[in-house]
Specification:
Layout (H helix, E strand, L loop, with lengths): L5 H9 L8 E12 L22 E3 L5 E5 L6 H18 L3 E3 L23 H17 L9 E6 L2 H4 L7 H19 L2 H6 L4 E3 L13 E2 L4 E3 L28 H13 L3 H6 L26 E4 L8 H8 L3 E7 L11 H16 L7 H17 L6 E3 L6 E3 H23 L3 H14 L5 H11 L2 H18 L7 H21 L4 H6 L1
Antiparallel strand pairs: 1-3, 1-4, 1-5, 2-3, 5-10, 6-8, 7-8, 9-10, 11-12
Organism: Buchnera aphidicola
Pathway: Sulfur metabolism; glutathione biosynthesis; glutathione from L-cysteine and L-glutamate: step 1/2
Enzyme class: ligase
């Protein structure tokens, strides 16, 4: 099942410099809530900046669904420091509110009013708003308030390019697609280790066929005894399955062709919703399978920084894959900023490993096979003596066996990285996290579930949100980038005004174009 990469590791050990320049970026989503735990009903505060144009603080689906975006950096400490500054800066501006520490909206009730995010009167702002109206009409309000952490990761060019004669776009894109296929084969390890949504609000199960026998606590929160990340299950945040779109990540051209087809093919369910209501208001951007590329919800996506006026498909087609976006990370409720350093270090190691292992090209049968292991881990990953499929003959090995096999390689990669930096950070992270396999009670999902049963999800969430708010306020006089962030607030409002004043097309023509 797992390829022997000892030769590649030897090559890496001889050439540690090719790992110099790993770049990362973090996007953390989180709900603004009132002190009593209910959803905030206030608009996105102007004192934080314009969500349309602010570089680092925006909104996702709802007005109260914040998104913190770090700059791209090759320095992990800088990323963590910047993310802490963003949280402290916002905490100062919303003294009477808190931020929710979980991915799942356990604070939701029947009276909750979810306001779809607004971005002003420009064509761009209206497009972003209508896209979200489309998400509401297609999948519902509540499901779009589920939050996560996205980890953007790129390897240095020297890692991929071993000859000047090679075509850079083809080689790098092929390498990242290999990494992505391996992430689908083995990436279930991430929700096992770091999944933090073992329970789900009752509202998510009202119109769902229950394949598993859920239990519930006193506050009507449903859970499974060994689940890890219900957020990424088919009752959490999923839309059209990529298997139905024939997206296999085998080569860039076929990936882009499949994605473009999804963006231009009408889908009966969405056609029935209608493009506009009877008053002429847009119900969605279009009636196709996907309104925009971002609607393709997957565990991992190939990405490229776009230029002004350029779509993601155009950018990928022109210049190839630049980085990958990991989307299967729950918010870590035991970290004030939703992620910790050990997670970042482990993700680095695992993604390098995925790049080193040869991944055969996949057909639909292969892809469906990989989903079996994801489902096992998502719904019952911590089950004693849990076994994982190792091939399509239905042969299995225990999770502990497979996990320890993977970590043997990860430890070797950790040694190479640490040796080049003259420290033990990666090795220490490995040593700590590998213990999660033999002792599942150490996993984040087990710790969450224990608190949910003993204390309750809502009460636990409020306790953590108050604790973290205090931490953010106490460090607010030490915000290193405070002046920088205040300046960005002003700049973002001005940028929004400029965009609104520069519009020359009607919205109808803008959408057609």
């Amino acid at each position: 099942m797992i390829q022997d990469i000892s030769k590649k590791l030897t090559w890496l050990k001889k050439n540690p410099g090719i790992l110099k320049g790993i770049f990362r970026g973090i996007e953390r989503e989180t709900l603004r809530i009132k002190k009593n735990g209910k959803f905030s009903e206030s608009l996105h505060p102007k004192s934080i900046g314009s969500p349309l144009t602010h570089k680092w603080i925006t909104t996702d689906f709802a007005e109260n669904l914040l998104e913190f975006v770090t700059p791209t950096s090759n320095n992990i400490n800088y990323l963590i420091s910047f993310l802490k500054d963003l949280h402290s800066f916002v905490a100062l501006k919303i003294q009477n509110e808190r931020i929710w520490p979980f991915s799942m909206p356990y604070c939701y009730d029947n009276d909750t009013n979810i306001k779809i995010a607004q971005y002003g009167i420009s064509n761009l702002g209206r497009k972003k708003n209508i896209y979200r109206i489309g998400l509401k009409n297609r999948y519902g309000n509540l499901i779009n308030t589920i939050s996560g952490v996205h980890y953007n990761f790129s390897l240095p060019l020297n890692f991929w390019m071993h000859s000047k004669e090679q075509n850079q776009k083809d080689v790098v894109s092929s390498g990242y697609l290999n990494l992505i296929r391996n992430y689908y084969r083995f990436g279930w390890i991430i929700p096992y280790l770091f999944g933090s949504s073992p329970a789900i609000p009752s509202h998510f199960l009202q119109n769902t066929k229950k394949k598993y026998q859920f239990k519930k606590n006193k506050e009507n929160i449903f859970y499974l005894p060994w689940s890890t990340s219900l957020r990424i299950s088919d009752i959490g945040y999923t839309s059209t399955k990529i298997i139905d779109l024939n997206i296999m990540f085998n080569d860039l051209n076929s990936y882009l062709k499949s994605l473009k087809k999804a963006l231009t093919t009408p889908y009966k369910k969405f056609v029935d919703i209608g493009l506009k209501d009877k008053n002429g208001n847009f119900q969605q951007l279009n009636t196709n399978i996907l309104q925009l590329e971002n609607e393709l919800y997957t565990q991992i996506r190939p990405k490229r920084t776009t230029r002004n006026g350029e779509t993601l498909i155009e950018a990928l087609n022109s210049r190839g894959i630049e980085y990958v976006e990991i989307r299967s990370l729950d918010i870590n409720p035991f970290s004030p900023i939703g992620i910790n350093k050990n997670q970042i270090l482990l993700l680095d190691l695992f993604l390098i490993w995925c790049a080193l292992i040869d991944a055969p090209k996949m057909n639909k049968s292969d892809f469906l096979f990989t989903t079996k292991n994801w489902e096992k881990i998502i719904f019952e990953g911590r089950k004693p003596n849990q076994k994982i499929y190792i091939n399509q003959k239905n042969e299995k090995k225990t999770l502990v066996e497979i996990g320890e096999t993977i970590f043997k390689d990860l430890n070797k990669i950790a040694y190479i990285l640490d040796n080049s930096e003259n420290n033990f950070l990666y090795q220490k992270a490995c040593k700590k996290i590998i213990s999660f396999f033999k002792n599942p009670e150490l996993t984040y999902s087990a710790q969450c579930l224990k608190r949910f049963i003993q204390t309750g999800a809502k009460k636990t969430g409020l306790e953590l949100s108050n604790k973290y708010h205090k931490i953010f306020i106490e460090r607010s006089d030490r915000i290193f980038y405070k002046k920088f962030l205040e300046e960005e607030v002003k700049n973002s409002h001005q940028k929004q005004k400029n965009i609104e004043q520069e519009d020359i097309l009607s919205f109808e023509d803008y959408i057609k174009k």
